[in-house]
Amino acid sequence: GAVVSQHPSWVICKSGTSVKIECRSLDFQATTMFWYRQFPKQSLMLMATSNEGSKATYEQGVEKDKFLINHASLTLSTLTVTSAHPEDSSFYICSVDRGEQFFGPGTRLTVL
Amino acid sequence: AQSVSQHNHHVILSEAASLELGCNYSYGGTVNLFWYVQYPGQHLQLLLKYFSGDPLVKGIKGFEAEFIKSKFSFNLRKPSVQWSDTAEYFCAVILFSGGYNKLIFGAGTRLAVHP
What is the DSSP string of chain B? Predict the structure, then answer.
């Protein structure tokens, strides 16, 4: 399998601020990582595919200027929620693809 | 567009009862199908998967699922549930797009097992 960590596990921020979420592949060099968001009592929705050394591929309806993704190394991808608003409050989950997808524990974002 | 439907949003069972969670997908081509489980406070874990071959797939913790191509279904079953099976269960189908495998998830079924 693959071990995936996320940091922080929970973050609370004020409206208008930016928040960075890290996703690390601890035992696998991942050229591709995926970012999902999960609203309460709803399913995971793919936001974007993070590609090491190149631009992320965003799903339809996801604002790339609001959700900045940087995949700077084979073990780290970051998701920055810029100018966060209460409607951005959600559970953000990353995964790596190693034949099958292995998921991180998720980051709960609460925007006040 | 490809989609995954899970029929039951909430299921409540007593221990030792049998479980069947429905999953249907809409995609006409070759599919890879998955069931994931998310225990309270934990991350998603793979229960089982179907790529090809025997349509009856056995997974971890006594779970199994049957792929019925004619019905576009991949229902999850367990003959006797335990309290520890309390979790949320997600059906997913893989979509190969733009060089990447993208997982499309169903809405999830929240299972509560009472002792």
Answer: --EEEES-SEEEEETT--EEE-EEEE-SS--EEEEEEE-TTS--EEEEEE-SS-SEEE-GGG-EEEEEGGGTEEEEEESS--GGG-EEEEEEEEEEETTEEEEEE---EEEEEE-
DSSP codes of every residue in A36-76: EEE-TTS-EEEEEEEETTS--EEPTT--TTTEEEEEEETTE
Q: What are phi and psi of B39, to 5 degrees?
A: -75, 155
Interface probe with A: pick from B36, B101, B109, B111, most Cβ of A within 10 Å: B101
Residue B103: pLDDT band by 50, 70, 90 thresholds? confident
pLDDT for A52: 87
The H or E element that residue A14 is part of is none
* Segment B27-70, tens digit of pLDDT: 777 789 999 999 988 888 999 999 989 999 999 999 999 999 99
Chain A CB contacts of B98 below 8 Å: 49, 57
